[in-house]
Write a structure and sequence with these properties.
The protein is of the alpha+beta class. Helices cover 39% and strands 26% of the residues. The protein has helices spanning 2-9, 41-45, 50-66; strands spanning 20-25, 29-35, 70-76. A three-stranded mixed sheet has the order 1-2-3. A hairpin with a 3-residue loop joins strand 1 (20-25) and strand 2 (29-35). The longest helix is centred in the C-terminal third of the chain and has 17 residues, at 50-66. It is globular.
Length: 77
């Protein structure tokens, strides 16, 4: 799943080498923490959050077919 998130986000940003995805997992949920350069936050979030929503939709859809735990994406700078 980390690879999927990186594959989606890296072409969108100016600093792809600074894209990081960390995994935080507990008993009933998985949180992927996406961090990008501060200058790239607007590109990852998009107007009215449309890009972020699209990324989440793709990842949630892929995760639901592979994992039984609830999956979240947290976008950080």
């Amino acid at each position: 799943m980390k690879q999927l998130i990186e594959t989606i986000v890296k072409p969108l940003v100016d600093y792809p080498e600074e894209v990081r995805v960390e995994l935080d997992e507990n008993a009933n949920r998985i949180v992927y923490k996406l961090s990008v350069n501060a200058e790239d936050m607007g590109k990852v979030i998009g107007k009215q959050g449309r890009v972020a929503k699209a990324i989440r939709t793709i990842v949630y859809s892929a995760a639901s077919s592979h994992q039984k735990k609830k999956t979240y994406i947290d976008i950080q700078d």
